[in-house]
Specification:
Elements: E1 2-4, E2 13-21, E3 29-36, E4 39-47, E5 53-59, E6 68-70, E7 72-74, E8 95-104
Antiparallel strand pairs: 1-6, 2-5, 2-8, 3-4, 3-7
Length: about 110
């Protein structure tokens, strides 16, 4: 996901995300790796009790390329509903973003 800001940040930013992950009784947890390039910012965990939920990650100012940053979300545990006996959908489901915003990090 490429995010473009109006200007280059002068300090670190906090990525705030409200999201929902595909978790069911047969697959009760899901990990989400948040990365910029090869730099891992955070590893989030979702489970059946904390879903949907809010998560954060600090983005160092040094990782921005000018006023842009490309953030990736990797879900190594993603499974399809079909593989879990939850219907016929063969798609591996991971993360549904509800909202996303960048805010200045507290000093």
């Amino acid at each position: 996901m490429l995010l473009r800001l109006q200007e280059s940040p002068r300090a670190d930013l906090i990525l705030e995300v409200e999201a929902k992950s595909y978790v069911v009784d047969q697959w009760p947890s899901q990990r989400v790796e948040v990365r910029i390039g090869e730099t891992e910012l955070a590893e989030w965990s979702f489970d059946v009790k904390g879903n949907p939920g809010s998560r954060t990650a600090r983005i160092p100012q040094s990782l921005f390329e000018g006023s842009s940053v490309a953030i990736s979300f990797r879900m190594p545990d993603a499974r399809s509903p079909a593989s879990l006996g939850q219907g016929s959908d063969p798609r591996r489901l991971g993360l549904a973003l509800i909202s996303l915003r960048l805010v200045p990090a507290a000093v």
